[in-house]
Specification:
It is built from no helices and 16 strands. The chain is an all-beta fold and 203 residues long. The strands form five sheets. Strands 4, 5, 7, 8 and 9 form a five-stranded antiparallel sheet that branches. It is flat, with a radius of gyration of 21 Å.
Length: 203
């Protein structure tokens, strides 16, 4: 590979496969001798999920990794996904080519979410064991203004959290609700876990 017309200062170099970082080299200076980059061995991550709805929507196994966004903030992103066979209450999943590093894996089926299981890939394949999709619950409440009047038409969004960071958005539309004339809202199917609720006034 060749990169031309770089500003004469140090640069960080990443080798990506899709959105996954396979190799990172910091402090590269333009004009240095040719770099030799040796990719680490690719390893496997596998596991099993129980609790799938036989008549439910398609399920996905998601591999997530922390990355820095444009502002230099650490965010979790989905770097690989595998569709699971439909019509079964349980299924196996596998990601066969994973570079060493920090990851999390979870399984989603519609609004249901197994929550993330953290893992670290070092020098051998990783078996994460069994993930469980549990029945979702509901989130309901009322939005009022500063004078305790119900707020009609406010938009609410649920954002999944992981530790002190937002979890990566799930495939499909975000979880949103709009308040009725009494200020009430309902999210009928929400997976167990930690969430943040965001409210936007009408207009």
């Amino acid at each position: 590979f060749r990169v031309a017309d770089l500003v004469p200062r140090t640069h960080d170099l990443e080798v990506l496969r899709g959105e996954r970082v396979l190799l990172q080299r910091d402090g590269v200076l333009p004009g240095e001798p040719t770099l030799e980059l040796v990719l680490p061995p690719m390893l496997g991550v596998r596991g099993r999920v129980e609790g799938l709805k036989v008549e439910g929507p398609a399920a996905l196994a998601l591999l997530e990794a922390p990355m820095l966004d444009a502002r230099g903030e650490r965010r979790w992103r989905i770097v690989e996904r595998e569709a699971l066979p439909a019509g079964l209450p349980s299924a196996f999943f596998a990601f066969p080519s994973v570079a060493p590093g920090e990851y999390a894996v979870r399984v989603v089926q519609g609004p249901r979410d197994s929550d993330a299981t953290p893992l670290r890939v070092d020098d051998k394949d990783v078996d994460v064991g069994m993930l469980q999709l549990v029945l979702p619950g509901g989130v309901a409440g009322t939005v009022i203004d500063s004078e305790s009047r119900p707020l009609l038409g406010a938009t609410l969004t649920l954002v999944r959290l992981r530790g002190d960071l937002d979890a990566p958005p799930l495939p499909g539309p975000p979880l949103r609700a709009v308040t009725d004339d009494r200020g009430g809202y309902l999210f009928p199917e929400v997976s167990p876990g930690l969430w943040r609720i965001e409210v936007k006034e009408p207009g």
